[in-house]
Amino acid sequence: MSGATLAPQDAAVATSIGDNSIASYDVEAVRRDFPILGQEVYGKPLVYLDNAASAQKPAVVIDSMRETMETYYSNVHRGLHRLSQLSTDAFEAARDKVAGFINAESSDEIVFLRGATEAINLVAFSYGRAFLKAGDEVLISEMEHHANIVPWQLLRDETGIVIKVVPIDDDGNLMLETYKELLSPKTKLVAMTHISNALGTIVPIKEVIRLAHAAGAKVLVDGCQAGPHMKIDVRDLDADFYCFSSHKVYGPTGIGVLYGKLDILNSMPPHHGGGEMIDRVTFEKTTYKEAPHRFEPGTPAIIEAIGFGAAVDYVKNLGQERIAAHEHGLMAYATERMSEIEGVRIIGQAQEKASIVSFVMDSAHAHDIGTIIDRAGVAVRAGHHCAQPLMARFEVSATARASFGLYNTRAEVDALVAALYKVKELLG
Ligand code: PLP
After folding, report:
1. What's the confidence (pLDDT) of residue 23?
2. Which of these, 167, 159, 177, 119, lies nearest to 143 by C-alpha position?
């Protein structure tokens, strides 16, 4: 059962886009796919607007994982018995699904890791240690998540690389002209977010990649926030590396992906050692398998990978363009309604934005906002969003962030807005 009723405007959103596919976006049917959404919180329908932190799971994901455990679970790759073969097939099928989801050329380019954080660390400590040396420059942006800052600092402390930061303007747009000026023959790697988790800015990543390549640099894209919100085509982007986490694309926690061009992956040394990643081991010397297995030592997250595969299938079947159009409508509506509330300031009004509205209020700290509206059943995130340098850029310690997913409705935006008026009433 759905937790929130469909506002008449939802139907309007569905049809005003003017294209046939979005006209058939039935958000109430979508909501029924997510068992958790039917519940109440403090006696109010749950309004889940914390999707940028982690998204809820559809029944097909939950079922795929339960089915794995109930019917064919076993360890993968190393068993000759029937269950191990079935598990291996399902695990590798999940890799194929993820490869298809981002249009990778080969499933061998898909490395399963714990998530985007581990993926970025793998690039820093495998690719970085092997190919970057003192004085080489890594460009990141001012709006990176800590996951795409700290690994480069650790690498800098170890190797003497130089980190340069591409600024953003007051609306949260990447300053492309400054980026061009920062690129030089010293630039060896550009590590940049596709969509900012704290602002919603969509970075013109294809152009960023083109310019980086022209300067002779490789590019790692942190696609954590793009995975759930837009169609990703790593070949069209020509990304060297691309990563995202399953739990933000409606899949389970504990798994994510690093895509890498195959020749680059195979040129990189393993980052962790153990079983399954080796070709031959003697006490004197070990040789390694090709990618992706050389980066996947030990027993992988088998059940989670299968759930991840089911999640990307779900998103793909629903249609990424239709999802993006639906979410864009919600974001535009939320921006309009929240702008009407006196004392609310939206942080991040980039030209291209996805699904995230970060804001502060004159009268209330972000944590107070989060706590008060929680009582109305509205779940948002309040804090620095693992982007402290970005908070410093906007001279705030924290923001409240409403982030929309494929199951959210305009009625839920209304619930958020009503809850914010309540905050004003309580705190002035
Ligand atoms: N990068 C961005 C832009 C994110 O939003 C997040 C998570 O919030 C991460 C990286 C880290 O992802 P994970 O915690 O799944 O490894």
Report:
1. 62
2. 167
Token couple for 26: 């039935």
Rounded Cα distance, 89 and 66, in Å: 17
C-alpha distances in Å from residue 341, one per residue of 169, 415, 423: 24, 14, 11
Ligand 1 centroid to Cα of residue 142, in Å, is 15
* The pLDDT value given to residue 293: 96
pLDDT score for 363: 87
Give every residue of the chain whose pLDDT is below 70, as ranges: 1-23
Q: Is 119 in the pocket of ligand 1 (CB under 6 A)?
A: no
Which of the listed residues 50, 113, 121, 145 should we mutate to test ligand 1's pocket, taking the one with most ligand atoms within 8 A of CB? 145
Ligand 1 pocket residue status of 197, Cβ below 6 Å: yes
DSSP state string for 165-219: EE-B-TTS-B-HHHHHHH--TTEEEEEEESB-TTT-BBP-HHHHHHHHHHTT-EE
Residue-wise pLDDT tens digits, 263-285: 999 999 999 999 989 999 999 99
Is domain 62-316 given the CATH code 3.40.640.10 in the classification? yes
Mapped onto helix, strand or coil, the DSSP state of residue 280 is strand
Q: Is the pTM of this model over 0.90?
A: yes
Is residue 194 within 6 Å of ligand 1 at its C-beta?
Answer: no
Give the Å distances, CA to CA, from 230 to 111, 264, 404: 21, 25, 13
Question: 355 in ligand 1 pocket by Cβ < 6 Å?
Answer: no
Tokens of 188: 């060896």
* Whole-number percent of the chain with pLDDT over 90: 93
**Model confidence pLDDT, tens digit, residues 360-412:** 999 899 999 999 999 999 999 999 999 999 999 999 999 999 999 999 999 99
User: Which among 243, 245, 385 is the best mutation to test ligand 1's pocket, defined by most ligand atoms within 8 Å of the CB?
Assistant: 245
Domain boundaries, the chain: 8-49+319-427, 62-316
pLDDT at 40: 96
Cβ atoms of 227 and 195 within 8 Å: the answer is no
Is 224 labeled as catalytic in the residue annotation? Answer: no
- Which of 41, 386, 396, 427 is an active site residue? 386
**Check whether domain 8-49+319-427 has CATH 3.90.1150.10, yes or no:** yes
